[in-house]
């Protein structure tokens, strides 16, 4: 099969290779997916580059955990009726050497989620890491019906899905963007209110939209925003953080303590299994109802993987896919 891979970490142009590798076989409990689209996330870039403590876990890695395609073979213990089923895939390269940047990938059956006819292959390939992280950030501490949810970085991959999921389940969503010029780029389906962090007094603007305070905060830049978060929290607020700029952030301890704030840190590879299953079910349901959308760039071919990694590394505004 044609596959992209690396056998050492480093810059994409130096280490990513394209070649022929043996087709994988589905073992017990596994399904083999003929990949149509491979979704690329910032975490895939860090693993390949060896940044933020990422090590080379296997002698050879076929990257990318997200994707979509069709099941073409199953292992023992999997219903043969699944052969021919359209699916979206998550976690393909989580603790495994072979992800979706290849013509075939093999994953445990529960990591290949049936893709209804109403959902495109492109959207399916975008639901994995960003969608499951967004779901955990929004719902990890219970329902949000009637709650007010603050989503930082609401134009990003996780933030956009978090806003849409929260609104789908009846929350009021306040989204933030870094610059005032970005406000117009946030669709109404993503957030009820959009606030630019470069405006004077963003805390006052958030409090004006949520005079009773914020129930949940979805945080993409914990070290940068924690003072702002403390200023708009109320008693019992949860800050669910999945990224930070400073790896050893300071925080305003006493304001957070007096508001009994919970800080939930999110590492998507190691969410509880049941949480991932619930997220997969909800993401599929919301997408099927037309409540989720993702801005997707024109997919690149598998041979364009180095260029694709560059787009993700430089903060592409749209989701980057490979058309396998």
Characterization of the model:
The chain is α/β, with parallel strands linked by helices and 324 residues long. It has 2 domains: 2-126 and 294-323, Medium-chain alcohol dehydrogenases, catalytic domain (Quinone Oxidoreductase, Chain A, domain 1, Alpha-Beta Complex); 130-269, 3-Layer(aba) Sandwich (Rossmann fold), CATH 3.40.50.720. The protein is 27% helix and 24% strand. The strands form 3 sheets. Strands 3, 4, 5, 6, 7, 14 and 15 form a 7-stranded mixed β-sheet that branches. β12, α8 (253-258) and β13 (262-265) form a beta-alpha-beta unit. The chain is globular.
Flag low-confidence runs.
none
What is the CATH-assigned architecture of the largest domain? Answer: Alpha-Beta Complex
CATH hierarchy, class of the largest domain: Alpha Beta
Structural class of the helix and strand makeup?
alpha/beta
- Give the CATH H-level superfamily of the largest domain: Medium-chain alcohol dehydrogenases, catalytic domain
Taken together, the total number of domains comes to 2
C-alpha Rg, in Å?
A: 20 Å
Based on CA inertia axes, which overall geometry fits? globular
Helix-strand topology string: EHEEHEEEEHHEHEEHEHEHEHEHE
Strand count: 15
| Fold-level CATH name of the largest domain | Quinone Oxidoreductase, Chain A, domain 1
What is the overall number of helices? 10
The residue fraction in helices comes out at 25-40%
Query: Distance between the terminal alpha carbons, to the nearest Å?
Result: 11 Å
Q: Please, what is the average pLDDT?
A: 97
């Amino acid at each position: 099969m044609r596959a992209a891979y690396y056998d050492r970490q480093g810059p994409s142009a130096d280490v990513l290779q394209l070649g022929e590798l043996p087709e994988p076989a589905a073992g017990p409990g596994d399904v083999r997916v003929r990949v149509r689209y491979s979704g690329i996330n910032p975490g895939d870039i860090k693993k390949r580059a060896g940044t933020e403590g990422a090590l080379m876990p296997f002698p050879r890695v076929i990257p990318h955990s997200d994707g979509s395609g069709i099941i073409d073979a199953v292992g023992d213990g999997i219903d043969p009726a699944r052969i021919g089923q359209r699916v979206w895939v998550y976690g393909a390269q989580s603790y495994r050497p072979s992800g979706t940047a290849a013509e075939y990938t093999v994953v445990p059956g529960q990591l290949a989620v049936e893709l209804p006819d109403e959902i495109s292959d492109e959207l399916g390939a975008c639901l994995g890491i960003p969608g499951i992280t967004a779901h955990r950030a929004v719902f990890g501490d219970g329902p949000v019906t009637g709650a007010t949810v603050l989503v930082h970085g609401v134009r990003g991959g996780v933030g956009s899905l978090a806003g849409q999921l929260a609104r789908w389940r009846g929350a009021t969503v306040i989204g933030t963007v870094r610059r005032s010029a970005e406000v117009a780029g946030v669709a109404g389906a993503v957030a009820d209110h959009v606030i630019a962090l470069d405006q004077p007094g963003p805390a006052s603007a958030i409090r004006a939209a949520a005079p009773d305070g914020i129930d949940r905060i979805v945080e993409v830049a914990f070290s940068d925003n924690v003072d702002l978060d403390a200023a708009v929290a109320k008693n019992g607020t949860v800050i669910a953080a999945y990224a930070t700029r400073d790896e050893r952030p300071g925080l305003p301890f006493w304001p957070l303590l007096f508001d009994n704030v919970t800080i939930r840190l999110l590492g998507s590879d190691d969410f509880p299994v049941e949480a991932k299953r619930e997220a997969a079910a909800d993401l599929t349901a919301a997408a099927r109802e037309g409540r989720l959308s993702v801005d997707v760039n024109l997919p690149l071919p598998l041979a364009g993987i180095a260029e694709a990694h560059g787009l993700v590394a430089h903060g592409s505004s749209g989701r980057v896919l490979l058309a396998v």
